[in-house]
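haha ok so turns out i had the wrong file open the whole time. this is the CORRECT one, sorry everyone. sequence first:
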Amino acid sequence: MRKSLWYAAGVTVLLFANPLPDAHAEISVTITKVSKPAFVIDSRPVFVKPANLGFSIASAGFYDLISYNNRYYLYYNNAWYRSSNYRGPWSVIRAEMLPLKIRKQSISEIRISRDNEMRKLKNRTNLLKQQTGQ
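then structure:
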């Protein structure tokens, strides 16, 4: 028993007498704030509402801008954005998060409907001008 006690004491001294090698680990964490996209819309857009879609589309402008249920949806560079104001701030949303009425139309179908509605309005305006002699 005395021998095993000396043996245990020796192992303990060896463990505590030898310093452990320094363990170095480098951790690099980079946190960046993703800024919200900034789209410049200088004035309130004029919207048209094609009957076949059930939502309004900005009649002109650089962006494909949709108004539906007091929200604005903007399509730009293959991505969708949402805001409660036409001036932003805008948040990126997945296409699956769009309202069903918008989601079930392709952007090209939306553009075609907008352009057709604009043609109708232009034709009506021209007809009214002819009738009034302007």
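The mean pLDDT is 81.
again sry for the mixup
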